[in-house]
Amino acid sequence: MSDLVIRPQVGSPLAGGLQVGDLAPDFDLLTDPLGHGSLSALAGQRVVLYFYPRDATPGCTTEACDFRDRIETLTKSGVVLLGVSRDSLKSHATFRAKQGLPFPLISDPDAALHQKYGAWGEKVLYGKRSIGPIRTTVLIGANGRVLSYFRPVKVKGHVDEVLGAIASGSKD
Fold first, then answer.
1. Which CATH number does the domain housing residue 96 bear?
2. What is the DSSP string of 61-119?
3. Block mean pLDDT (10 aa), the chain, length 172
4. Cα 159 to Cα 172: distance, rounded to the nearest angstrom
5. Collapsing DSSP states into helix, strand and coil, what is residue 21?
6. Domains in the chain: how many in total?
7. 129: which residues sit within 8 A by CB, 6+ positions away?
8. Angle formed by the axes of helices 158-168 and 58-69, to 10°?
């Protein structure tokens, strides 16, 4: 797997057929602590939707804590942050409590949302190919359109990349 960050121009294809400029696929899934989370409920707000492989693993914990540590900057920028993994709500609740995460985590057990956003596919880890979650972040504008797309994500420095995209992008 390369460290390449995909930040295509409007109209260029992404994994799963989603393109920068497209309407982001809506969803209504269970979240901790909200109960339900949907993109349509956040209409008019910018959203950072980040997909990660698994609660409480080293890379996922680092990424979640990096977002936690920058939540004030995200909030002041008018951005709502949502994390997504296939983990259960119970796992999410434990992870959120242990790490002090002030943002909701969405449970996507069948990976349907992962697939809609191109965060599911073939990956190579230590020379072994497998199908599974691909660390991906999507910045969605207040108009519901995809503004930026990061895949695959390298954890170190990623939150700064997202903040850069937020600062340089429009609020649409």
1. 3.40.30.10
2. HHHHHHHHHTHHHHHHTTEEEEEEES--HHHHHHHHHHHT--S-EEE-TT-HHHHHTT-
3. 37 61 93 86 96 97 98 96 96 97 96 94 86 94 94 94 88 64
4. 20
5. coil
6. 1
7. 122, 123
8. 40
Q: Is 153 helix (H, G, I), strand (E, B) or coil?
A: coil
Q: What residue numbers bound the domain in which 131 lies?
A: 15-37+48-168
Positions marked catalytic: 60
Contact 124, 1 (CB under 8 A): yes
Residues in the chain: 172
Torsion from C-alpha of 79, 80, 86, 92, nearest 10 degrees: 130
pTM: 0.88
- Residue found by looking up tokens 């339900």 in the block: 36
